[in-house]
Amino acid sequence: MKFTSRGVVLPLAALYFLVPIGASIWFSVNEVEGVSFDAYTEGLGAEGLTTSLMLSVRLGLATIVCGLLLMVPTLVAVSLYLPRLRRIVEVLCMMPLVVPPIALVAGVTTVLSWEQDLADTPLYMTFQLLRDEDFPLVLVLVYTVMSLPFLYRSLDAGLRAVDLRTLVEAARSLGASRLQTLWQVVVPNLRAAVMGGAVLSLAMVLGEYTVASVLSYRPFSVWMVEIKDSEAQLSVAAAMLSLLITWGLLLLLTTLAAGRSRRRAVSGRENRRKTAS
């Protein structure tokens, strides 16, 4: 029964994901004269694509760094010293899934409107820095909040899979500082969880439209929507490029995790062989 259910569910899930992707690819190459790959060979060099894509990638990398700097120490501290706060931290991290992006950006817009009232104060330059057109830090801050659910779930699963207290106590007994323990002991054991959360956060940034559009910025997702009326095939081809980037990162993550598992298995067999001999 279990095999039968899997044999039905997996093909249906594959169709659910692959049919829209296949239809999008066909739309991007279908022409009156036949099949044409101009949207990929020529269109992907269109004005604004590279600039918007690089902006989204930079925003994504900054979001990943901010999110990890915030979540890794917090979750380690909660797991070791404040387990009663685990539920509260979980609720706070899941909150961005409940609050609609349009409501979140409405609050951000209200705060940014204070800029004119602070023209004669040092905070005015802070608001200018947050709204910089070349690299809007305000988007990084908002995206960091929006990425908390993905980072929390990934890191929490990674922390539950390791004996964190034993690792930390062993490192501390050998003279490592708290920072050394976190960076050299805890983080390496959370490598797969960190990479998984990072990929999900980057995918979220690449596909986020509402916040960037309302705040009048032009990352990759906004650029795709802007050109869809005049260059529909190019817009779809750009979406496939975004999907390809995300899938490539997931494939890289899977390959690295599989490679590490194989190395651990080989190392375990060698250790057992040495012990037996």
- CA-based shape: globular
Low-confidence segments, given as residue ranges, are: none
**Alpha plus pi helix count:** 14
Q: Strand sequence of the main sheet, in spatial order?
A: 1-2
Query: What is the H-and-E element order?
Result: HEEHHHHHHHHHHHHH
Mean pLDDT: 83
User: What percent strand?
Assistant: under 5%
Structural class: mainly alpha
Question: Which range best describes the helical content: under 10%, 10-25%, 25-40%, 40-55%, 55-70% or over 70%?
Answer: over 70%
Radius of gyration: 23 Å
Oligomeric composition of the shown chains: single chain
Separation, N- and C-terminal Cα atoms: 45 Å
Please outline the major beta sheet: 2 strands, antiparallel
Please give the number of β-strands.
2
Task: Explain this structure.
With 277 residues, this protein is mainly α. Helices cover 78% and strands 1% of the residues. It contains 14 helices and 2 strands. The chain has a two-stranded antiparallel sheet with strand order 1-2. Helix 11 runs antiparallel to helix 14. The chain is globular and about 70 Å long.
